[in-house]
Amino acid sequence: MPESTRPHGFTRRTALRTLAATALAAPVVFSPLNSAAAVAAPLWHPNPATDGLKAYEGIEADRGNHHPDRKYVVVEGDHYRFNIWKDDRDTTGGGDRQRTESKGMVQNGTVLKMHNGENWTLSYEMYIPGSLHGTSKFTHIFQTKTPSTNGGPWVTLDLTRSGGKEMISARAYSNSGSPNIASTELAPLRDKWITIQWTFTPGAKGAAGCVIRNGTGSSAPIAAQGKMSNVNIPDQGDYVRPKWGIYRSVQSASSDILDTYLLFRNYSAGRA
């Protein structure tokens, strides 16, 4: 089972690409988002204790029902815990990948949908343990996709490895070369709560921005930030849906595919 270590100060009780790429503009530095919430009056702000898994449209984990005894996504106090085991396999990819993800945003029974031309902000806090490694193949811990076409991933947050260096990178994944929007070394951000703040304008030539904070609150230092235009993130006549969790290839080094977990809390999303 993934390690049971909790963040310091927390107990259990309290606690692919489917379209042709579009042209890119170079990333530019931009003003960081408000640290406490993405918008003043967010449309999505689930409380794990009362909303539970109804905060999401659904959960994608063990879709082949190989391990019915395992608990993949659970509420622990003020946060959500996403578990994954090294022997998990998803029903896609011919056995080369694994997945424990949530999909979508639901507030009071209403699904929130991101459409072309709209300006959205998303913010959340995340805890990455030492057992969740960057990998030489894909490891997404956030994705945006289009449900009706299964289009995407469009924009992702990835844990990558090149030799001994592990990185956390916000990427325009469906653009040519999957360029980084914002990127920094992973090691200083492990085993603590950090903040991820996104801006999205969906469209075939949309825009995306990301701020990664090394900590929580408005005074937490910015570890990386960037914004990019001409980002391929289309709703394709449907809508763009965010996904959180661990979706990774098992074709990376076995030493990087461990039993592990990922924690999320303080989700907030809104439309300008």
From TrEMBL:
Signal peptide feature range: 1-40
Gene3D superfamilies (UniProt xref): 2.60.120.200
Name by which UniProt lists this protein: Polysaccharide lyase
Keyword annotations from UniProtKB, A to Z: Signal
